[in-house]
UniProtKB/TrEMBL annotation:
Keywords: Membrane, Transmembrane, Transmembrane helix, Transport. This is MFS transporter. It is a multi-pass membrane protein. It comes from Billgrantia aerodenitrificans. The keyword Cell cycle does not apply. Pfam families: MFS_1. The keyword Transmembrane helix applies. The chain crosses the membrane at residues 12-33, 45-63, 75-93, 105-126, 138-159, 165-186, 221-241, 256-275, 287-309, 315-338, 350-371, 377-396. It is found in: Membrane. Its main location: membrane. InterPro entries: AmpG_permease/AT-1, MFS, MFS_trans_sf.
Length: 416
């Protein structure tokens, strides 16, 4: 048990260190860019710098089939991590905030390397952790990402304000170097890291057939793909524009960083851990509609207070609800993604799911940016809320079927 806990925490740190650059650039920097005069549409288009995440499936093929320096997933993660450190240091000493095309080029490079490194790290985690630990791993990963949001969307913005634009990138490179040391000393099971026969478990979902096509032959795979692409984008888009909204309302940049970046990220991390335990008690069939409803409520609240031009307290209530919805949904989604990664195809199946997830997540902020420029904040949040209501309605007839398909691998519900 101690060994499993150490592995969970080690992978949690790796997720944190890899996610931090992208979170800072795509979720934290919009606050700085708004100060530089970037429009809502420009900030929305910046999210296209996360486009490499859509290509995780393509990145997974060499990770699954090639073994640099005789290694496997670990070697790939180390190589890509070194390149990511160098890119972060390069941007630290350039930082062209007033040159959008040049800035986006740097962000694209960093996003590509961080995204590619994420594939072998997650494949290694799926291989190292038994099926009974995967929902827990999903909640820890989600909490790590929200910790990255606390640092990248809050503390690094404060560091930017006080120490200049170079300091956050140097710090991120150092944190990534610590992750590289953890990766080198991490003990992993002795079975092969890849290949169709490596590390199969009787608790995993059946293979069905080899290759990518076998993923869609798993029970309820079609339902899972639909929910994977629809559960998160609406709340995620609302979060992207929350900091620029508060800045436009006259809240000081550092105060936005503390309240939304640090406070909201902490609330999301706690909701990730609590939401996972609640889902085990309620069951997937009840938890998914509940979490989708929470997301719709949070977006509607933000739309309403935007229309009313309400006070600061109500804005923070809406932001807290949105953070909790994001945490609960993401923790559950990440855990289920691990269950749908077949033995021997961990990198490929993870890459496929991550590509589908990212495709929808990146498309929504662009639409939301156009809505913001055309309808204002109130209209944008209300449209996003209606979209989340539709997703919640979709979960009602489908989440129970998904739970039934996963009943062989999900931990049993706690006794009443």
């Amino acid at each position: 048990m101690r060994s499993l806990t150490v592995r969970q925490l080690a992978f949690g740190w790796l997720h944190f260190a890899l996610a931090l650059p992208s979170i800072y650039l795509l979720l934290g920097m919009p606050l700085v860019l708004r100060e530089q005069g970037w429009s809502g549409t420009q900030i929305g288009l910046l999210q296209l710098a996360g486009l490499p995440a859509v290509l995780k499936l393509l990145m997974a093929f060499p990770v699954e089939r090639c073994r640099p320096a005789g290694g496997g997933y670990r070697a790939w993660a180390g190589l890509l991590g070194v390149l990511l450190c160098l890119a972060l240091l390069g941007l630290a000493y350039d930082l062209p905030l007033t040159q959008p095309l040049r800035f986006v080029a740097w962000v694209l490079l960093i996003s590509l390397l961080a995204t590619w490194a994420d594939v072998p790290v997650n494949a290694l985690a799926i291989r190292c952790l038994p099926a009974g630990e995967r929902l827990r791993a999903g909640s820890i990963r989600s909490a790590a990402l929200f910790l990255a949001a606390v640092v990248g969307g809050g503390l690094l913005l404060v560091l930017h304000q006080r120490a200049g634009g170079t300091a956050p990138f140097v710090l991120m490179a150092l944190l990534l170097a610590v992750g590289g040391i953890i990766l080198c000393v991490l003990e992993t099971p002795g079975q092969g890291e890849g290949g169709p026969t490596g590390g199969a478990s009787t608790h995993d979902l059946p293979l069905g057939s080899t290759g990518i096509g076998g993923f869609f032959l798993q029970p309820s795979a079609a339902i899972w793909v639909a929910l994977l692409m629809l559960l998160f984008p609406f709340v995620g888009a609302g979060w992207v524009y929350l900091k620029p909204l508060l800045l436009d309302l006259g809240m000081p940049a550092e105060q936005v960083a503390w309240w939304v970046g640090v406070g909201g990220g902490t609330a999301g991390a706690l909701a990730s851990l609590a939401g996972q335990r609640l889902a085990q008690g309620l069951g997937i069939g009840r938890a998914l509609p509940l979490y989708a409803g929470l997301g719709a409520l949070a977006l509607a609240c933000l739309g309403l207070v935007s229309h009313m031009a309400a006070g600061q307290t109500l804005w923070l209530v809406g932001a807290g609800l949105l953070a909790c919805a994001m945490g609960a949904l993401s923790g559950l989604v990440f855990g289920l993604m691990m269950h749908f990664a077949r033995p021997g195809y961990r990198a490929l199946d993870y890459g496929l799911q991550a590509s589908l997830f990212t495709l929808s997540r990146l498309a929504m902020p662009i639409l939301a940016g156009v809505l913001l420029d055309g309808l204002g904040y109130a209209g944008m949040f209300m449209v996003l809320a209606l979209g989340m209501v539709a997703v919640g309605a979709l979960t009602l007839p489908t989440a129970g079927r998904l739970e039934s398909a996963l009943s062989r691998v999900l931990p049993p519900k706690p006794a009443a």
